[in-house]
Amino acid sequence: MQPRSKANYGIDAPGVVRNLALGAAASFLLGRSLYPVLRPRHSSLAAALLTIGFSNGILCLLVATAMVLNSKVGKLRERERLLDSIPWQGHEAVLDVGCGRGLLLIGAAKRLTSGRAVGVDIWRTEEESGNTPEATLQNARAEGVEERVEIKDGDARALPFGEDAFDVVLSSLVLHNIPNKTGRTEALKVMVRVLKPGGLLAIVDIARTGEYEKVLREAGMGEVVRSGAHFRIFPGVREVRGRKAGLAG
Question: I need a labelling partner for 237 at 20 to 30 A (CA). Which of 57, 75, 203, 225 fits?
Answer without folding.
Answer: 57
